[in-house]
Amino acid sequence: MLNYQFDWSTVTSGKYFDWLASGVKVTLQLSALSIVLAFILGLLIAVMRMSNNKPVRWIAHAYLEFFRNTPLLVQIFFWYFGSYKILPTAVNDWLNSTNFEFAAAVIALTIYTSAFIAEDIRSGVLSIPKEQMEAARSAGFSYLRSMQYIILPQAVRLTVPPLVNQFLNLAKNSSLAMTIGVMELTYQARQVESYTFKGFEAFTAATVVYVAISLVITALVNIYNEKVLNIHKAA
Amino acid sequence: MDQFFNISVIADNFTYFMIGRFPNGPLGGLGLTLYLASVSCVLSFFGGLILGLLSISRFRAVRYPAVAFINLVRGMPLLMVIFWMYFLLPALFGKVAESQTVIMALTLFTSAYMSRIVVAGIEGIPKGQTEAAISTGLKPWQAMLYIVLPQGLRNMIPSFVNQFVSLIKDTSLAFIVGVSELTHVGTQINNRTMAYPTEIFVFIALIYFIVCYAFTSLSRWLEQRLAWRKAI
Fold first, then answer.
1. Where does the ABC transmembrane type-1 domain start and stop, copy by copy (chain B) (predicted)?
2. Which residues have CB under 8 Å from B153's CB, separation 6+?
């Protein structure tokens, strides 16, 4: 360690910088695409979880428990190696025609994250007074329409901070995609290390990017909490 | 591909999935997963306790570095922490076994999360307790150690169990440095048999699910019990 020669120029310029930069790009693409899909899926599961229909509720509950209590890595491996048997041929053909590593990572991250998002949305909805739903129903809205126009718009506002946290988790979790060969940030840092033996520099660069993403977004959540939710409370 | 779900690949390798080559060889499979999770859990309990206490210290010189460290680790993916350890530990201490690298990484990572649980648990105890303790003549550290922590720790138990569940899931990342825990065993058998990835990964997912769900339910039960005890 003591006779280690630091060479920061390895990661701040040239080919290896380009590798890391492309890794950052893939990490952000993977996280952004997955969070959007996970939000939509999570919303659906949350609504199913609160449905009055017992089988629907039970399916949503089983989905939540299963995907929350299984490691993401195993889920990634399942979608990457094992999903072809349970998916229809048309879907398999389509997946193979795309960048399958990336697609498998998106599917796994989406499903894993949606289970956590659904619970966040549900606790947001549960914090909306029950009378709101009763009033909406008595005003003639159906259950789904009451959810859509009355409950969810209010709940989603409260759910923004935990959702942003889920996005942070997702950005960090996306590093697992390297195990199936998605060339995201951690993959590239590892790659730079094996080509240059400058592991300290490469890992520092990747760590700085991850921590920067996390600090910036945490700061934004704090601002949102103070400005938006406080204004909401005062009004 | 003679049948849709081939059970025999699971049945043939069942012992290997559960305990690896133990007792004739090193522990592996689910046994190693639970071993890694348990050791890291105990270590990160103490790590989290120390970090948590440091991060609410009255002295800025203590508090700031602790908070900075916690935020640094919480901002990093666990995989990154494992690579750091994998790279740094040999440079600092010479040869380190892979499983120890993983235990160190999991401990460091989980300690940062545990510290937040500890802080929340301490903050959940009314201020009056500390004030009363100090007015009876205890020093601030004695008030923390003998009055606040024993009560706070009890409230933290459900969160600790949840963290243990996360740890069990996180041990799957030990796969990346070649520690033969459950996920690694699964990929190994998958590479050897080639034809049954669906069966193998569904089976592994189910095992993780059974173990994790048991602990999740335990944590919920404890939470209810604690709420009930507080109510009387």
1. 30-219
2. B121
Please judge whether A77 and B87 are an interchain contact, meaning their C-beta atoms are less than 8 angstroms apart. no
Disruptive mutation site among B17, B79, B185, B190 for chain A (greatest number of A CBs within 10 Å):
B79
Going from N- to C-terminal start, the domains of chain A cover 12-234
Q: Taking a C-beta distance cutoff of 8 angstroms, is the pair B183, B175 a contact? A: yes
User: Which of A70, A193, A203 lies nearest to residue B205, judging by beta carbons?
Assistant: A70
Which residue pairs, CB below 8 angstroms and at least 24 apart, start in A190-193?
Answer: A190/B83, A191/A19, A192/A10, A192/A11, A192/A16, A192/A19, A192/A20, A193/B87
Task: Give pLDDT tens digits along chain A (235 positions).
Answer: 556 778 888 888 889 999 999 999 999 999 999 999 999 999 999 999 998 899 999 999 999 999 999 999 999 999 999 888 888 888 888 888 888 999 999 999 999 999 999 999 999 999 999 899 999 999 999 988 998 899 988 888 888 889 999 999 999 999 999 999 999 999 999 999 999 988 899 999 999 999 999 999 988 888 888 888 775 543 3
Q: Which of A72, A78, A190 sits opposite B202 (nearest CB)?
A: A78
State the residue for tokens 């033996």. A197
Residue B87 to residue A172, Cβ atoms within 8 A:
no
Nearest-by-CA chain A residue for B202: A78
Q: Where do runs of H (alpha helix) occur along A174-198? A: 185-196
Q: Calculate how close chain A gets to B35, using CA atoms only, in Å.
A: 16
Q: Give the nearest partner residue to B176 out of A4, A65, A179, using CB atoms.
A: A179
- Please name the CATH architecture into which domain B8-127+155-231 falls: Orthogonal Bundle (1.10)
CB within 8 Å: B80 and A175:
yes
- Supply A69's token pair: 């209590």
